[in-house]
Amino acid sequence: MTDWKIPLYAPSTGAAEAHAVAEVLRANWLSVGRVTQDFEERYAAALGVEDAVAVSSGTAALHLAVLALGIGPGDEVVLPSLSFVSAAAVIALCGATPVFAEVSGAHDLGVDPADVAARITARTRAVVAVHYGGHAADLPALTELARRHGLALIEDAAHAPATKTAYGVLGTVGDIGCYSFFATKNLAMGEGGAVVARDPAVRARIRALRSHALTVGAEQRHRGGPSAYDVDGFGLNYRPTEIACALGRVQLEALAERRVLRQEAVRAYRTLLSGLPGLEVPFADRPVEEGAHHLFPVVLPEGLDREGLQAGLRAAGVQSGVHYPPTHLFTAYRERFGTRPGSLPVTESVAARQLSLPLHAATTLQDVRHVAEAVSRTWPHQP
């Protein structure tokens, strides 16, 4: 690995996480058990919902959401192309068609509700709202749109664990909310995720599908429960481990404090980068307290050499990233669904100019100054 002076991401783990893992190893039960159940209860409480289902990844969460809604061949789901590929992949794997919509623009990288509305057909079954970088999509507009057309609203809250906004806690406003606890996320298990659902029947279905639709789980059998079981559906193994959920409990306890640290870094970024001509900071008009701030994205002006800027940052020891290549331009989607360059001009323009700067709980104000100075030195549009 490159020895970055300031990495794009750095894990927030320490003695508390090590102790939690050691306790699981001493208990000698590694798959779904009492630690997982306790994490689910704590996470549900943090969200203000009745129940949460812990799963093995954010992708598993999205797949279970699509399966629980019965979405399949002949159905369409509208979602933004400017997102990680997982949501589109699970839709395609279920035999449905992902229909890609535009983002609002460089100022707001959330999906554009007006463009979503224009893409709804008689075959549409659901809309996916991605809370890009931990910033809320336009939930009032998307909720009304889903209600009017009788569609399910799936919130992809992979970047926004337990995030309170003016719209509500992200992931709990729509019909199903999906979270990721991947190694780089604000709440990091290494691998992991969670699903919440407004309808208890849908939530129960998700919990069953997580573990092969077995009527009696392995932990129940291990502790002396019934040894016989039935299978009342076609499920998967999307169970988390006790180790992951032990990490999750510790990370959840520190989440609010670490979010404040992210907010301080974002405030400094917004101030220090404000003088660069042509640079746009998405979501900059929103209160910093309402974002999870998983990413700090910027959008470069037209004509600026992104690779050249990244090279300048690399020379200063600063790691940067691109979030994300548009899904509709990937080979698999072009070949299967006939998507093509030019079909989403706003998304394609923004994606070609987007750059993510380092942001994590350990990002100091000195780090932010170093990054901002490195950007400024490489910036070709000085007055």
Automatic annotation (TrEMBL):
InterPro entries xref list: DegT/StrS_aminotransferase, PyrdxlP-dep_Trfase, PyrdxlP-dep_Trfase_major, PyrdxlP-dep_Trfase_small
KW Glycoprotein (keyword) present: no
Names of required cofactors: pyridoxal 5'-phosphate
CDD domains: AHBA_syn
Family statement: Belongs to the DegT/DnrJ/EryC1 family. L-glutamine:2-deoxy-scyllo-inosose/scyllo-inosose aminotransferase subfamily.
Keyword field: Aminotransferase, Pyridoxal phosphate, Transferase
Pfam families named in the record: DegT_DnrJ_EryC1
GO molecular function, one term: transaminase activity
Name of the featured protein: DegT/DnrJ/EryC1/StrS aminotransferase family protein
